[in-house]
Amino acid sequence: xxxxxxxxxxxxxxxxxxxxxxxxxxxxxxxxxxxxxxxxxxxxxxxxxxxxxxxxxxxxxxxxxxxxxxxxxxxxxxxxxxxxxxxxxxxxxxxxxxxxxxxxxxxxxxxxxxxxxxxxxxxxxxxxxxxxxxxxxxxxxxxxxxxxxxxxxxxxxxxxxxxxxxxxxxxxxxxxxxxxxxxxxxxxxxxxxxxxxxxxxxxxxxxxxxxxxxxxxxxxxxxxxxxxxxxxxxxxxxxxxxxxxxxxxxxxxxxxxxxxxxxxxxxxxxxxxxxxxxxxxxxxxxxxxxxxxxxxxxxxxxxxxxxxxxxxxxxxxxxxxxxxxxxxxxxxxxxxxxxxxxxxxxxxxxxxxxxxxxxxxxxxxxxxxxxxxxxxxxxxxxxxxxxxxxxxxxxxxxxxxxxxxxxxxxx
Length: 411
Description:
Layout: H1 2-38, E1 43-49, E2 51-73, E3 79-84, E4 91-92, E5 97-101, H2 104-140, H3 145-177, E6 180-182, E7 187-192, E8 199-200, E9 207-221, H4 223-227, E10 234-239, E11 245-258, E12 265-274, E13 283-300, E14 305-313, E15 318-331, E16 335-347, E17 350-355, E18 362-366, E19 375-379, H5 384-410
């Protein structure tokens, strides 16, 4: 009898327990669903510690590499070209023959001028001797003044003829020499516009030669950048498709006025150091350093959040855009705090921070676009197990601290 009563009591206890568990399960489910609606999952982010570095304010512009001086070579006589000795890209020296013009007519002209000069020289010598003799006779009264004047006129005329024939001889000699088109400078052939068989015409450019006195590039800048240019500023040049520095130079000339059509100001950069990768005619990016600051806080541009607000100026009733910048900083490993920034110099993708951050702050560089101030984060690369283990250790240490007094109490 007693055992039956005990059995019934045990069954009743089990039924009450099952019922209680069912009610608790429903309540708990309701509570979790409410919590799920109020808390979102943490955002996965990457962080980068803020450090100090040097940064420079730079003006960037593209220009074509050219020789500082380009010499146009024009033939001085006209005739058929018989030989070409230099071609595009060849290095030439002063006086080197570039092309040959058919010279037979000029050779004949020169020989004829030589003969005429010899004849005029002979006549001049004869008339000169006769004039000296007639002058002596005239002074002694042996001849009349008419005879003396005739001798002097013949002498004067022969002297003029000799000078004219000498000038013709000089011109024919120069024409014959000009049948060889020569380089006036040391340089590199940039272009050739004639071929064998062509007629070389005086005044027509047949060769362009870059005088090897240096290279330069000309930049055309908007007013704000042009106004910041001064002679002597250092310049680094990179090819348009490369990052390596191919040349260095300095600002050598700054135009005193802006172009009225384009509104741009011209700046000439003379190159002082060049590498073999530099090519004439290539498009190069010039980076002109305006200011450099050392040991300043620098962050990547991609980490910043930009906010644009529209503002209406009451006095002028004009609409202005006001931009503000901020970043998210990781507080511990689970919370992101938004901080406003005051910016300084900009260099490509690097930004100087004047106010808002301190060295060592961990700024969020990816995932920040979906964050809010005090939002939950999970740092990429840090396993949740590490975080759980840390929490467990904290709980264990708390438990141990809680157990210590009770143990002593038992003792």
